[in-house]
Amino acid sequence: MTNRLALAKSLYLRKHAENPIDWWPWCDEALATAREQNKPIFVSIGYSSCHWCTVMEGEAFSDSAIAEYMNANFLPIKVDREERPDLDSIYMQALQMMSGQGGWPLNVFLSPEDLVPFYAGTYFPVEPRYGRPGFLQVLEALRRYYDTEKEDLRDRKALIIESLLTSAVLKNGPADELQDHELLRQGWETTTGIITPKSSGNSFPMIPYSELALRGTRFNFPSQYDGKQICTQRGLELALGGIYDHVGGGFHRYTVDPTWTVPHFEKMLYDNGQILEYLASLWSTGVKEPAFERAVALTVQWLQREMTAPEGYFYAAQDADSFFNSTAVEPEEGAFYVWSYSELEQLLTLEELTELQQEFTVTPNGNFEGKNVLQRRQSGELSLRLEVALGKLFTARYGTPPDSLATFPPARDNLEAKTTNWTGRIPSVTDTKMIVAWNSLMISGLARAAGFFQQPLYLELAAKAANFILDNQFVNGRFHRLNYGGEATVLAQSEDYAFFIKALLDLSQVSVDSNQRSFWLEKAVTLQEEFDEFLWSVELGCYFNTSSDNSQDLIVRERSYVDNATPSANGMAIANLVRLALLTDNLHYLDLAEQGLKAFRSVMSSTPQACPSLFTALDWYRNSTLIRSTTDHINSLIPKYLPTSAFAVAARLPENSIGLVCQGLKCLAPAESVEQMLQQVQQSQVRGCLKSIRRI
User: Fold this and answer.
1) DSSP letter string over 232-280?
2) Is this model's pTM higher than 0.90 or not?
3) For residues 199 and 9, what is the distance between their CA atoms, to the nearest angstrom?
4) CB atoms < 10 A from the CB of 214, how many?
5) Rounded distance between C-alpha atoms, residue 360 and residue 353, angstroms
6) Which residues, listed in sequence order, are joined to residue 251 by a DSSP beta bridge?
7) Per-residue pLDDT reduced to its tens digit, 599-630
8) Distance (Å, rounded) from C-alpha 348 to C-alpha 444?
9) What are the phi and psi torsion angles at 79 (to 5°)?
10) Which residue of 370, 441, 575, 640 has the fewest CB atoms within a 10 Å radius of its CB?
11) Where are the alpha helices (DSSP H) in 360-476?
């Protein structure tokens, strides 16, 4: 027997459809029912490729005694964080206030009358273990507390809501607190330190941090860090490490060690899009590492083969877990990706295995539960023999040689994974929903890689996905975040607007055809108008996470400025505004960018470690440069690393010149050669201060 979630479009929600818990989706009816029955609300938030979410679904949420008590005493609601990042952000912040840490699954208990949380946690086992109480014990204690400790409950909720409201309202920093140049230097120094190799803990890509660190290397700030070396090292960790799938392409989410060896095996679209852009940017700075080019090329192949819908958009994620065989009861983490030594002996010749051991971390004992995660030992090109060997491993995994497998159909749930007659291994489940924000990060990554590596195919893939969004994600004149099988749903949030506008601008900048450049720019301008109308705060000078007509079920309207695995919406939005001002000559965009930077200046001064994307926006604001030239000369500049420059095709240029380089509201002397124009651009990008524009 199934519950209400059997009708959900979300793969994550449907995974809980056969739980004995009487789950509701987040909706007005559920909230009203909780109020009518005076039941505290239990909200459990996760996502389809979350390992510990899957564990809790199979344990506590499948336990009949827990379900019986839950159904009688609470109103349980399941939320897919990828559908509702606004809810996830608010209640994750509450969890961090209560416990000092966060994570998923996010399990939070709310009062039904006001939706204010009074307790929160992450994974709860069925029985007490790992230093955590059993889930039934937690439920019994919380229901008793809710019924008998009303005064303490009111006081506790008052503290939590006060903290949430306080964090949502930021004070504008004084203009002279730090000079712009020093503020940017501080942000770069802090961020570069954060991505410096460490000796303990997990290893995450942290691309918003890496991107700021890379763009800041052109300033030659006095520093304790060698920024270019650290940024190159981050690229090598990604391209050589076990976080990268050396057989099939694509990057896993993070590694569980500081050596970038053993990953948490899910592959997220948002990571892969950002990493493509970062490796391509490193390449364009002159770090022509063959491992970067190979990692980008194979990741694009993975994207085409496994993550692209027939309509052209990109799927959201692939699970970490998969089944070793069709009779297995539970999937195992990494089963699709790891290799036993005996397997390698059977698949490879002695010479191939010997060379594989020389170049990769392959041993009889393995490095992950007796099996091997492939990690390269050194940079450079792989030999032809090694590429042949990796091709054999690909064939063993997928059942088809790499040059014969254009598409690999997704397993959309565990049942489909187990019952399909796969010719190779049973693959991980793919979450096939389309998320605008995540697609946008991949579109940007492909566009930038197309420009830097001069690969038209990358641009073709990016354009097709962007056109799908333009053609399908507007309903009744409004932009929508998700698409399930052709149906657009859920109003777009700030990250959807900001990331897609950036993607459109990136497409505009690398398109060879001038009509295409104009098309993408026009679409960006139109979408920016909707973004400003529904999410801009006139009083606070920045963008809310949710639109003015879609915030009724939120206890606070937040403004995203903290970078996590993805950039902050406001950081990216402010950078977009500067780019739009350059490309349209509309100074209203520059006014909005100025207001946004003022709104977050105190955060940038006091906690620079939280917001690298805001510093990227500040870099754009201070050093923005417009290059007006012919199509041919612009195309010759596209492969170069010019992080705060924009291109515009000039209808007319001064006599004997090939282009104009403009800084803010003034243009330099007409450039008479490509070399002179490039020199002007490079100087403009480090000029330090927009003298013609008022300081923020």
Assistant:
1) HHHHHHHHHSTTB-TTT--B-SEESSTTS-SEE--EEHHHHHHHHHHHH
2) yes
3) 42
4) 29
5) 10
6) 244
7) 999 999 999 999 999 999 999 999 999 999 99
8) 38
9) -130, 130
10) 370
11) 384-398, 414-419, 436-453, 456-472
